[in-house]
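Instructor's aside before we start: the two examples that follow are unrelated to each other. I chose them only because their records fit on one page, so don't look for a connection. First example below.
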Amino acid sequence: MNREEILKAIEKKYDKLGVPVDAMLEGLLHSTPITYWDYIQTDALLGLQIPRTTQPDEMVFIMYHQVNELLFKMVLWEIDQVAKSIEISADKFAMHLDRISRYFDMLCSSFNVMADGMEKEQYLKFRNTLTPASGFQSAQYRKIEFASTELINLIDVRYRDKIDRNSSFKNAYDHLYWQAAGKNYTTGQKSTLLNLFEKKYLGEFIDFMEDYNDINLSLKFKQLPKEVQQNKDLIKAMRHYDYTVNVKWVLAHYNAAAKYIGGSDSDLKATGGSNWRKYMHPKYQRRIFYPYLWSEEELKNWGTF
């Protein structure tokens, strides 16, 4: 576009908004140039690390988890490009899944930052100040799960025959697989970890579950024309995402935890109080976003291949 075309386009844009274009142009005359640090909000970002102890490696732990949360936000942003599309092609669906998988590939490989980037002695000193906080309480990660698959696939395998699409969202929430890390199903008692998590996010989670009940990635895939569902690249992208999130990333987290609290003679629990070995390992979680895209043998050996 030449200058005259650009000015006409600007005028047309602001006419639709009911804003005088001359006022906008005069505002540009008096505005200051944008800088990298203002655009990225560098000062604010670098001021968000507040250690609770004098152990230097606690800073590594904090920044690593903050990076995780930024990547989770990127994942949710990509999911919405699919979930909230009225119509979507196999190519676009696969493109966004590939982006999401790359983010989780980064998360998987980044566990070396923690596994090899902290002294065990320092970690064992500052970890107790984190109780009862836990990565379990990442609300964005839970939203990724809700937006990726149908709720039945997130229900604890022991209770799936009692839950269906007619169940209330609250009932489904009460039987999610990760409740086992913070709830005694025999007594019904919830840990402080879970009580605090629900006090902060329960209402938001129920709304989110309802919002994505009909537009999660699994249902969006099933709503595609049959010939599109058979697209090999799309199926490959779906399987890669499923495996990367629910096996590869989980095991990377599991192995990092094992290095610090998982010795053969260790009886340490996660900071949230859970039996981290059973909670974290995918063969116990049995969390699979797209079970219809895996063979019986693959499903049987989930988390071990």
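Example two begins here.
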Amino acid sequence: MTGSKVVAFGHFQPERIVPNTELEKLVETSDEWIVRRVGIQERRWGTGVETVDSMAIKAAKMALGNAEGIDAGDIDMVIVATCTATDRSPNMAARVANALDMEQGPATIDVNTACSGFAHSLALAQGAIASGSATKALVIGSEMLTDYTDFTDRTTCVLTADGAGAMIVTASEEDGISPVVWGSVPSLSDAVRIEEENNNKFAQSGQSVYRWTVTQLPKIASKIIERAGLQPEEIDGIILHQANLRIIEPLAEKIGAPNARVATDVVYSGNTSAASVPLALSKMMASDEPLPSGSKALLFAFGGGLSYAGQIITIP
């Protein structure tokens, strides 16, 4: 079997809920300004005990619990997408494998393409399965963005949040994951950044990113759908990087998928970078109205680098 499919989802968020009114005490802002500019009403921040790897482990455990007939001992590849890794080495994937007692020694890989990291990681898992190098992969996005947030900058601190999302991917006779469409914009490589010269705090050139997203993302999204051999009308769900509701809504409309449910988890979870796509989809699937089995869901993210990646998955 050289095909692959997603078989289960999982997620984790810290318990601390931070409404916009709490941010009014930190910087010159208001609930009205935040909602109007980015659409966020509240977000989840770490409580002081969470780490990138601890959140990844909890999301992984949920995904494994939702994967019928699969346990940690069956996983032969672990990929963690993050730009906020706790340590340089060992990587977060190795910490996950150790915590889950994966004594069989899976491949453990971290991916840092910031917010697009999960879509990149899903494509790497798909490629490994297609080549025969893996049969069952655990793919996770986990971020502690608040560790890298400048809480004096009202343009960024209103966005950032913490959380993790995970998927289990297995070999399949039929492809349940479309070929990835990915790339970068080198001229905007520093438009979204966490750099030492800025005290390792998250910063972005918001207007440059916004102009690029509104002009280029619809074209890339159309290419993803085309490469999957589908028409926009056949898309049942749209899960975009949860960066800003004012980007998500117009982009979803331009994609032209009238039957698709659009994930808007950013309203309640904020921007969790590489965790945002799997987190939003896992929460949707755990809700009272999950996407039906067999649905086609478009996953698409963009972020630091400036990198982007996306594919379409079949909902298990």
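The chain has a mean pLDDT of 94.
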